[in-house]
Amino acid sequence: MAGISGLRAILVAALAVLVSACAASSAGRGVSVTLRTDETPTGKITLYSASRALVIGIDNYTQGWPRLQNVVADARLVAHELKRRGFEVSLRTDLTGLELQQTLKEFFALQGTDPETRLLLWFAGHGYTVGGEGFIVPADAPTATDPRFKVKALPMRDFGTLVRLADSKHVLSVFDSCFSGTVFASRSGAAPAAITQKTAEPVRQFLTSGDAGQSVRDDGAFRDLFIRAIRGEETADVNDDGYVTGDELGLFLSQRVASLTAAAQTPRYGKLHDVRFDRGDFVFVLPGSEAVSSTRTAMVKSAQSVDHELAFWKSVEQADDAKAYEAYLRKYPNGDFADLARLKLEAPADEAYRMPPPLPQRMASRPPPPPRQLNRSLRLLQGVWENRAKGVTFQLRGERAQLFKNRKMAEAGLVRAQGDQLYIVGAGIRKNRMTLTLNGARLMLKRGGESIALTRARRPR
Prior knowledge:
Blueprint: H1 4-19, H2 21-24, E1 31-37, E2 40-48, E3 50-57, H3 71-84, E4 88-93, H4 97-110, E5 117-124, E6 127-130, E7 133-136, H5 149-152, E8 154-155, H6 156-164, E9 170-178, E10 184-186, E11 203-210, H7 221-231, E12 243-245, H8 246-260, E13 268-272, E14 283-285, H9 296-319, H10 322-331, H11 338-346, H12 359-365, H13 376-380, E15 383-387, E16 392-397, E17 400-405, E18 408-418, E19 421-426, E20 429-439, E21 442-447, E22 450-456
Parallel strand pairs: 3-4, 3-5, 5-9, 9-11
Antiparallel strand pairs: 1-2, 6-7, 7-8, 10-13, 11-13, 12-14, 15-16, 15-22, 16-17, 17-18, 18-19, 19-20, 20-21, 21-22
């Protein structure tokens, strides 16, 4: 489920599209790259005629695996960014085993019929290793101790067959999960020095956010680093040539995530164990690079489709009326702001809380404070807390609080400080005010005569 903070990030990304639509679509269909011999340009080739992506996020596990909090939100953010980079994107969430296998087969076999089309898969959800064999886990898979697990889950060994179904010369699969990879060869050392003719050779590349036996963070860090890398906001472009290749991306993420987690989480990357598919390299063209060569029609069409939704959403925000949110959901049922619209419909604002002004006004007049300005007690409470026995989960991102009961959001609001006491006001807090108290390793939620003790959630993938 997308949190409020995740939706704010979507708003910021959408505003960037409005301000600079052409730059946002810079890596669109019809991508050309400059070939080099060492540091000397030798000419250009058209590397891709089209770009297609399948983005999958699974939060709602139903057969014993811990439910995840931010995976679907991450998937929506990745899908949105890939659209801005010129990809045709299909977003799928909470797939069952049969749905997962069918969706993957159709993507590689049907969307990859053109050798000049690049394919990108993003999967976020649970991964697991059994006897050295890695599996990706669909929503309806039982736990790994159940023999039916191997029936429902998808072995990475089978994944090697799936990526071979595509005729596309370049396929990159990114897994925000942890498991052992038996289908690809891990790589290390420096990334290639330049884009050469060899780059255009066929390749099947893989990247995982963790290794076997590790717990992958469910806080959006891997997603955030991935997006920043393909935007050019991080130093993933090793040789500063305006491109980020699959090898460069893998090298960057493996180093940054390992450093961020003190080596508790170590991404792996590599290429398929097949001499036909291990020579080339997937390529992202960074925004603003002079090497970009996209067709004007495709750029304008991609930018306009996002701009229209953003303009529609801004008018809905200004109206701040239930009928306006319903109209948005009818027109964009899977839009970038659909979760926020449903939240507003399910929890109308009371006198204590009002929807923030439209993003351009908010950014111009009152930018949000940096994390260091948060109340010290509030900083200590950041993250996800739970009481599994009562089916209660509490999530705090910045000042935004959400309370879930039996996996459904029950209340949402803002945390405020009064002296040493923290309390919540907002859309779902209509009667007695809810207070928060940190008691050792436990978070106490109190309202009226009711008190619930929660502990910090640990959610391996």
